[in-house]
TrEMBL record:
Pfam families: ABC_tran (PF00005), TOBE_2 (PF08402). Keywords: ATP-binding, Cell inner membrane, Cell membrane, Ion transport, Iron, Iron transport, Membrane, Nucleotide-binding, Translocase, Transport. GO terms for molecular function: ATP binding. It comes from Gordonia hydrophobica. This is ABC transporter ATP-binding protein. Residues 2-243 form the ABC transporter domain.
C-alpha cells in the first residue's frame, strides 16, 4: 500500500538541525495493520505526517498504491491522498455535533436533498460501525474519552479512505479502556479490511494488535516483520530490550559451520553449551527471553535475589554462581523464596 524509500527529514532547529528521519525504507502491507513502534523522539510522528501529506520529505519517495505522492519533484496534498487520520486525542470539532464531525470529510453539497440523505445514511452507518448508534446529536464534550476516539475513527473512515493513519490513538485513555478499545478497533479494521498504520511507543500494543511491526530508532527502521518474528529474533540487543523483557548473557561461539543450514549455532555460555538460533547471538551476547528459562530439577546452580508478583505470573531474578544475572517467569503461585538455591535451564523448543 505505502512504499517508502530513502525518506529523510531534517528540521532546521537551533542550535543544531535535528535529523528526524535518516533514510526510511518500509512497505506497508495492503489490508493489514502495520505498527510503527519506537521510543519517544525516534521520528514516528514525523514519518506519519509525511505519509499523511502534512509534511514533505527532504529526499526519498513515498508511493501510495501505484501513485508517487511525495518525491523531490512531486507532492500530493493530504486531501488528494485518500488517507484517514485519527490523532492522539481525537481532535474533534467541539462546536459541531458528533454527526457533523463525522460528515465533515464527506463530499457533496448541503443543498441537494439526495446528497444530504446519502451523507446522513453514511454517518449513521459509521456510528453503527463504531458502536455508537443514536449519538449523532451529541457534542464531543458529552462523550467519554473512549467514545470520542470512536467518533474520531468514524470520521476518518467515513470517506472510505485507502489507508487510515492512527497516531497513538489510545494513549490518553486509562489502562483498562485502552486495552478494550484497541482490540475493538483492531477487529473493526479487520472486518472492513482497511489498511492501517498505527504509531505507538507501547510494545504490548504493537505486538498484540499489528500484523506487521516496524521498529524505529534514531530516525531509521531497524527491523520489520510479524510481531512473532521481531520478538523472537530481534535485530540487536537494544531491539530485544525494547520489544519486551530480555536476558542477555555473554557467550562464545563454539560451532559456526552451519552444517545443517538451519541458522543454528552452538555457543558456550554461563548456562552451559547451548544450540541457539544464530539471530539470537550478537557480538558475544546471547539474547534470551525470560520465558526461555525455567527452574528445573537439573541445570545450572543459581540463587534467587528478588521476586515480583504480578497476579497471573511472577518474575524471578537470579544470579548464577559466576555473578551472571538472569530473569525468568513462573506461575504467580510458584514464586521461590528469597535467597533460595535453585537450578536453571533453558527451555527447549522456544
Ligand atoms: N517541527 C519540528 N521542528 C524541530 N524539530 C522537530 C519538529 N518536529 C519534530 N522534531 C524533532 O524531530 C525528532 C523526531 O520527532 P517525532 O515527533 O517524529 O518523534 P516521535 O517518535 O513521534 O516522538 P513521540 O513519541 O514523543 O511523539 C525529535 O527530536 C523532535 O524533537
Amino acid at each position: 500500500m505505502f512504499q517508502i524509500r530513502g525518506v529523510t527529514r531534517t528540521f532546521p532547529s537551533r542550535p543544531e538541525p535535528v535529523q528526524a528521519l535518516r533514510g526510511i525504507d518500509l512497505d506497508v502491507v495492503d489490508g493489514g495493520l502495520t505498527a510503527i513502534l519506537g521510543a519517544s523522539g525516534c521520528g514516528k510522528t514525523t514519518l506519519l505526517r509525511i505519509l499523511a501529506g502534512f509534511d514533505r520529505p527532504d529526499a526519498g519517495e513515498v508511493r501510495l498504491g501505484e501513485r508517487v505522492v511525495a518525491s523531490p519533484g512531486v507532492f500530493v496534498k493530504p486531501e488528494k491522498r485518500s488517507v484517514g487520520i485519527v490523532a492522539q486525542e481525537g481532535a474533534l470539532f467541539p462546536h459541531l455535533s458528533v454527526a457533523a464531525n463525522i460528515a465533515y470529510g464527506l463530499p457533496g453539497n448541503a443543498w441537494s436533498a439526495a446528497e444530504r440523505r446519502s451523507r446522513t445514511e453514511r454517518v449513521e452507518a459509521m456510528l453503527r460501525l463504531v458502536g455508537l448508534p443514536g449519538y449523532g446529536d451529541r457534542r464531543p464534550a458529552q462523550l467519554s474519552g473512549g467514545q470520542q476516539q470512536r467518533v474520531a475513527l468514524a470520521r476518518a473512515l467515513a470517506p472510505a479512505p485507502s489507508v487510515v493513519l492512527l497516531d497513538e490513538p489510545f494513549s490518553a485513555l486509562d489502562a483498562a479502556l485502552r486495552v478494550e478499545l484497541r482490540e475493538e478497533v483492531r477487529d473493526l479494521l479487520r472486518s472492513i479490511e482497511t489498511t492501517a498504520v498505527l504509531v505507538t511507543h507501547d510494545q504490548n500494543e504493537a505486538l498484540s494488535l499489528a500484523d506487521h511491526v516496524a521498529l524505529m530508532r534514531d530516525g531509521l527502521v531497524v527491523q520489520s516483520g510479524t510481531p512473532q518474528q521481531v520478538y523472537d529474533h530481534p535485530a540487536d540487543p537494544e531491539a530485544a530490550a525494547f520489544l519486551g523483557d530480555s536476558v542477555q548473557v555473554p557467550c562464545s561461539v563454539l560451532l559456526d559451520d552451519d552444517a545443517g543450514h538451519d541458522g543454528m549455532l552452538v555457543v558456550d555460555s554461563p548456562l552451559g553449551s547451548l544450540r541457539v538460533p544464530a539471530a539470537s547471538v550478537h557480538d558475544g551476547t546471547l539474547v534470551l527471553r525470560p520465558e526461555q528459562l525455567e527452574i528445573a530439577e537439573t541445570g545450572v546452580p543459581a540463587t534467587v535475589f528478588a521476586t515480583r508478583f504480578f497476579g497471573h505470573d511472577g518474575l524471578v531474578q537470579l544470579r548464577l554462581d559466576d555473578g551472571t544475572p538472569l530473569r525468568l517467569r513462573v506461575a504467580g503461585t510458584d514464586l521461590p523464596a528469597l535467597d533460595a538455591s535453585v537450578l536453571v535451564r533453558t527451555v527447549t523448543g522456544r
